[in-house]
Amino acid sequence: MNRVIVVGGGLAGLTAAAYLARGGTRVTVVEQSRELGGRARTSIEEGFSFNLGPHAVYLAGAGAAALDELGIPYEGGQPGGGSFVQHQGKLHTLPEGLVSLVSTGLFGLREKMEIASFFTGLQGVDIEPLARVRFADWLAEQMSTTGARGLVTMLARISTYTHPTSDMSAGAAIRQMQLAFQKNVRYVNGGWQTLVEALRRQVEGHGGDIVSGVSVRSLARDSALRGVVLENGETLAADAVILAGSPHMVAQLTGITHWAATRVPVHAACLDVALRHLPHPSRKAAFGLEEPLYASVHSAVANLAPEGSALIHLARYGGLQGREAGAVRLELETLLDQLQPGWRQYVVKTRFLPDLTVSNAAVLASQGGLAARPQVAVPGLQGLFLAGDWIGPEGMIADASFSSGRSAAKLILNQREQQSEAA
Ligand SMILES: Cc1cc2nc3c(=O)[nH]c(=O)nc-3n(C[C@H](O)[C@H](O)[C@H](O)COP(=O)(O)OP(=O)(O)OC[C@H]3O[C@@H](n4cnc5c(N)ncnc54)[C@H](O)[C@@H]3O)c2cc1C
Asked: 383 CB under 6 A from ligand 1?
């Protein structure tokens, strides 16, 4: 039979399926939603490409490497310049280089020296011994000034999407900042759905099947894994299954509840704003120093909006955290008042998504950091594999989905090769 079923048609599942199909394996992806892509979906409304909140590809990350390996191009642009820091309620120019750091009034001399030294040493930090060290403890050891700690915390938040950052694995946070500063990020023309569609074409182009709008209800197994059972009771036979969803999905389908009980998801509240005109084109981004806030004009560098108009993503890291949705929305609108005064008269559409799951699991020091995340092969369950943004030792957010999807597929392909050599 030699069929592999992939449960979940997000980036992790589609990446796994693309590698399997290219490797000559019969693969079927089952996605419960009618739309493929999971959290990487983009909806096109009135000519604007709305990602599900702000999405950027880390060009030095595992996702970019997998896309390159699969031959999937993704055009777009890199953000930079025209950025501000919101400090004590007011916007200040973000120092983006040594010259602007020296001249900014945002920090004192000792703070500037600590910030400069952080950037000089960042790429050389050995992250391995820092896997189980809390980011807050590492920061306290490295820096004595409030301003420098605040700026580095802000950068860690932007790079990892995690808030609060204190319990994060210092190794994981630093790795993510290293990636961000090595090659920057890219906002993708047409939105992340273009990546989803390219992966879908790879799967189908190499003979794989995709079934959407159908949920997997359980695994089919007796003494061995036999496949999956769909919501309509039909069994899809397979000798290997990749579960490419959340810890809760894994708990529901396998009965392994440990991960669902212990993983701490990363949330964000997002406001997506489409404008028919951008009042201040040179003002492109703003980040909160004290408050976990983000605003960026994604259409400034990527093709996401009709000519002359603009698409802006705003977010509060951490999501609502017990606050009223209306108060958080107001906070984000106020940040946009500061970045783009007058924006309200040009609104085409706004979309407020108060509680998105950015990642299924924060990378915590207490859980051992990246290297201690669950592995793609489920121990004791022959033929069962996992993929997703909480799986495997490499990358955070979508990089982990790409990386674990690729690893699960490679593991299955290797096993197949060994079996056929033995036969
Ligand atoms: C606001 C926001 C901003 C983000 N920004 C970035 C960013 O800038 N950079 C970055 O790298 N990442 C970013 N991410 C994270 C990135 O979007 C995700 O990590 C990635 O898309 C997750 O892909 P996945 O395939 O692992 O999971 P998902 O996209 O969640 O896919 C899982 C799929 O499984 C399906 N499924 C679940 N249960 C079943 C079942 N029983 N049967 C069939 N199907 C099932 C679901 O419907 C879903 O489609 C962001 C996410 C959000 C929300």
From this structure: no
